Amino acid sequence: MSPRSYLFVPGDRPERFAKAYASGADAVVLDLEDAVPPERKAQARQAIGAWLAACTPAQRAQTVLRCQAIGQPAWEQDLAVAQAWAGQQEAGPQLMLAKAESPEQIAQARALCALPVMALIETARGVLAAPQIAATSGVARLVFGTLDFALDLGVAAEPAVLAQAASLLALASRAAGLPQPVAGVTTALQDTNALQQDWAWAASLGFGAKLCIHPSQIEPLHQAMRPSPERLAWAQRVLAAAAAAGGAACQVDGRMVDAPVMAEAQRLLARA
Asked: Which of 46, 47, 62 is nearest to 13 (CA)?
């Protein structure tokens, strides 16, 4: 199953690494981009390299390395940190490529580091190229960088503004056979309601995971992702009725149940 939660931790704060992996997050994003000032990026690369060499195989498989956008100073050195794990038999880290805008950029990054790429879509160019990026060899998942996208457009990061771009990422992911895309961060660290509302909006558009910026966001997010008891009870009634009907169309709660409804019920039970 694809990760539901991705927790960022600055790459120059190695004292926070173990706590991030113990947070319950499905994946940990060791950040070499926005969270690290330019004068500390070399130190961050060294800290991340040391961690990847010393951590457990399970932790390595749980790791995503967010590197700088192509063309930024020393961005190739970011990729070199993870390249040591390419081709290993054990599951290694993935890359999150900032400001992904074209299949050519994905190929350029993969030429230097042959690890799966999470394409972080943060600009208008990236959104419009999302179908081509999603179909590019080596791309594992699309990620929506909502804050930078809004900045690129010169607008507030409001749901009504972001919805069209978010829907395009969801459609591109589905068409390319990728997992559902990853939603952007919620900056209100102590506001569980805001986090859960952000998730409900993203899920309604076809997203399957979310970026987090603090360990305290993980459990409320996972709780919001779980189907409600009422929905689970409905799914169980649907599958029981379908089994009794031998898989043929039937009725549950006064509504028709056919193959798509049965599939939805199975999906809900699998998520639970």
From this structure: 47
